[in-house]
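I am still getting used to backbone structure tokens and would like to learn alongside you. Would you supply a protein for us yourself, any chain you care to pick? Start from the sequence, derive the backbone structure tokens from it, and show both lines together. Go ahead whenever you are ready, and we will take it from there.
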Amino acid sequence: MDRQEFEHQLRGALRAIHDYVTLQNHPLATLVTGDGGSDDLSRARRFRRALLEAIEDLAPPADSPVGQRQWRGYHILTSRYIEGHTSEETWQELAISERQYYREQQAALQALYDRVWATVQSRAEKSPSPSAESASPGSLDSELERLVRIHDSCDPGKLLFGVVAAVRPLAEAHMIRVDLAVDEGLAPIQTNRTVLRQVFIRVLSSLAVTDEVMAIWVSAQAQASRVWITVRTEMASEPPEPTLQRLREQFSEAEDLARRIRGTWRSLGSTPWGYEIAVGLPTDTQRIILAIEDNPSAIQLMRRYLAREPYRLIHAESGEEALERAQETPPDLITLDIMLPNQDGWEILEALRSEPALERVPIVLASVLAEPALTSAFDVAGYLKKPYTRQELVAMLEDVLGPAS
């Protein structure tokens, strides 16, 4: 494989970085991991881990100021390919122009291509080592522990459509039909999208390679405060015990993943002619935080602090814009920077308090000035001294709003 084809293939792998089925059979999986022929998803995990590590290697030193340009390439790669944001969302988050975004994205990708290409070339020069086949026992668990703390709001219909699309080629190769039915108007679910995809990719791909399975039905319905996703099969005959044992092991792993992301797993039983499981996910319980802040770097940092927490951040740069945003999306809490141009935080605070719809919304002041005593004088819920840490921000939100669910 020449360098041009390598770059094309690596770009495709980045787009599929959360899709284990695609990564398992990707042309670069063997080249990058040195795996000579694993027939389960372990090669996909090693390939994905190698890509994530290559991206992490591009991060500047930890003591580098977050807002500086040297962070942008790393932030672009993590935002686009790990967090799944669109290009437009990414350049808006970084407060750069579209033209600058694409220029810096290409530079970041080129640096990543160079790093992974060097790994492939180095591996090719060495004879395979038996130890290369075994991954570190704690690597997957460490990755999962990091992922399960990140709760996203996602559309269950879109998520299942993507899962079924990813697994359908495998099912069709085994002459198995996969159908999807999703009730209209389902509420967003509050979970980790990446891990949830792996739950159902694991379940569906396991069933798709089971000879006795003739058809798979996937459905989603609302019940109370949860969305229940059900997988049901039709079988031509009862699978032999070794096949059943494999399915039990695969489903056990999927169940563990589901429980880690606040999912409720129900095995609805198996018969000689079918199998049925259901997973219940909580609907969107994110609290809305309106940040009134004119510093793009401060907003970018706040987004990253809250990315792993059950809060959704909306942003305004002025009092007038804050009132508009609050009307569009009523906030649960407002953070207010004091040092703002044209209209300072105290004037904005007065304007917010004069709005009947916002008079009961707690407001937290955020400032570089040491003025916590003013919180009582101006009837605000709390005070954050800039620069604050993620722990300080989350502790303040939980102190005002109560513990997150």
Remarks:
- The two ends are 49 Å apart (CA to CA).
- The chain has 16 helices and twelve strands.
